[in-house]
UniProtKB/TrEMBL annotation:
Transmembrane segments: none annotated. InterPro entries: Gfo/Idh/MocA-like_OxRdtase_N, Gfo/Idh/MocA_Oxidoreductase, GFO_IDH_MocA-like_dom, NAD(P)-bd_dom_sf. One of its GO terms (molecular function) is nucleotide binding. This is Gfo/Idh/MocA family oxidoreductase. Residues 131-268 form the GFO/IDH/MocA-like oxidoreductase domain. It holds the Pfam family GFO_IDH_MocA_C3. Residues 5-122 form the Gfo/Idh/MocA-like oxidoreductase N-terminal domain. PANTHER family: D-GLUCOSIDE 3-DEHYDROGENASE, UDP-N-ACETYL-2-AMINO-2-DEOXY-D-GLUCURONATE OXIDASE.
Length: 337
């Protein structure tokens, strides 16, 4: 029995590579329609996945579906989400939630007013390692978190496709694209403690080097207008601090994706998962041989959205939490002017 009719808005890389395949595996879901400003692309994707309806405008889609998956460039997340929610349609919106805090606030209010689901695509929270770390910290396994270190580092991986290097469409570069995932995950693991201060700085010199070396295709170094590297130091009112760094292009020896939390009683490294303790004259590191849960975090995220829409399951990624991530990014940008 069909329980949820879905529409897809903006059917580029992430919609066709992750979301449409994931939702098509879920029982009770009908892939009902697509909309993209590029009508040829919309038709192509509709054919590829046997989706019966190609809308000429988003409003047409809202009339036929219960929920939409919004995968447009970041600039349009706000207007599309609000329009869908006002039409009574649940929304899954890709990350980052929006470009400004004010736009995020609008989205939160629209969801509350319409009493509809608004989930943001922070799929790192659905990784098995993240879920395990959440359980560990919640059960007191590391005591009180003190110092968080986040490195979401790519040595030379500026996306050479799409509009990722266009500030007016995306709002920013590596922070909006990559760093936001790890920032969101760290805040969630800490249980979103109140923030005392954010200090940050962005950089853009390395990607402008005319001697372009890039592993993810070529981009136009004369038009790129987003940051390729950012750092931040976040202080929480409970005394904990976060050292954060993200890049698309940096003169470092290798790519690195780490999130570690040192607490009063122990520490956890999320990728790869390991728990550190020191007691009884020993320093120990425990690694996981196997972690339970869904290996495909995109599918886990999609199932969770369907459950929230059809059964009112409490959201793992709450709208106000996604808003806070965008607000921190906005603060880093403001300080970097
Ligand atoms: N969660 C993740 O790890 C992840 C990974 C990649 C992208 N994303 C996010 O997904 C979104 C899309 O990224 P992508 O890589 O699929 O980009 P893309 O460029 O491949 O696709 C975007 C699509 O949106 C369409 N579009 C543009 N403006 C539109 C509008 N106003 N209305 C309808 N359609 C419109 C384009 O024609 C294109 O087909 C971005 O917000 C990005 O941050 C998330």
């Amino acid at each position: 029995m069909i329980q949820l009719k879905l529409g897809f808005i903006g059917v580029g890389g992430i919609a066709s590579g992750r979301h449409i395949p994931a939702f098509s595996k879920i029982e009770g879901v009908e892939l009902a329609g697509v909309y993209d400003v590029n009508e040829n692309r919309a038709k192509e994707v509709a054919d590829q996945f046997a989706i019966p309806f190609v809308a000429k405008e988003a409003a047409e889609l809202f009339k036929r579906v219960d929920a939409v998956i919004i995968c447009t460039p970041n600039k349009f997340h706000h207007e599309m989400s609000v329009a869908a929610l006002e039409a009574g349609v649940h929304v899954f919106c890709e990350k980052p939630m929006a470009i400004t805090d004010a736009a995020c606030e609008d989205m939160v209010n629209a969801a509350e007013k319409a009493k509809r689901v608004l989930q943001v695509g922070y799929h790192y929270r659905f990784k098995k390692e993240s879920q395990a770390a959440k359980r560990l910290i919640a059960s007191g396994g590391i005591g009180d978190p003190l110092v968080v270190r986040v490195e979401a580092m790519r040595r030379r991986k500026v996306p050479g496709w799409g509009v990722f290097t266009n500030k007016s469409l995306q709002g920013g570069g590596c922070l909006m694209d990559y760093g936001c995932h790890l920032l969101d995950l760290a805040l969630w693991l800490l249980d979103f403690p109140e923030i005392e201060s954010v200090h940050g700085q962005t950089y853009e010199m390395v990607s402008r080097d005319p001697d372009q070396v890039n592993q993810w295709g070529l981009y136009d170094a004369t038009t790129i207008d987003v940051e390729d590297h950012a750092t931040a130091y976040i202080k929480f009112k409970n005394g904990a601090t976060m050292l954060f760094e993200t890049s698309w292009a940096a003169n470092v020896p290798e790519d690195k994706e780490t999130l570690s939390i040192s607490g009063t009683q122990g520490g956890v490294n999320v990728f790869p998962y390991a728990v550190n303790h020191a007691s009884q004259g020993m320093m120990t590191t425990t690694v996981a041989d196997w972690i339970s849960g869904e290996s495909d975090e995109g599918l886990a995220q999609a199932r969770h959205f369907v459950a929230a829409c059809t059964s009112g399951t409490e959201l793992i990624v709450k709208p106000n939490e996604a808003r806070l991530v965008s607000s921190i990014i906005e603060q880093i940008y403001k300080q970097s002017k």
